[in-house]
Amino acid sequence: MDINKIVLNTLVFDTEHNAGLPQPDMLQKVADFGIKTVEVRREYFKNIQTETAQVKDINKKLGLKIFFIAYLKKNIYRHW
Asked: Which residues pair with 39 in a beta bridge?
């Protein structure tokens, strides 16, 4: 298996999240697994502005590729 093709969703840390682990702190755990790509979850942010800034700062050291999926309200975007 090519570990470079794995995208880890922070949902795998659901138990830790429910115990209070903030999503920015999950990034180090991802890096410790040797995984280079992670998808963070909107619902795991308690304060999205503060924590996305923390994610950015932490990732300067880790160098992960980070995906964040944003859902748009119906009729805000066009279908091409």
From this structure: 9, 67
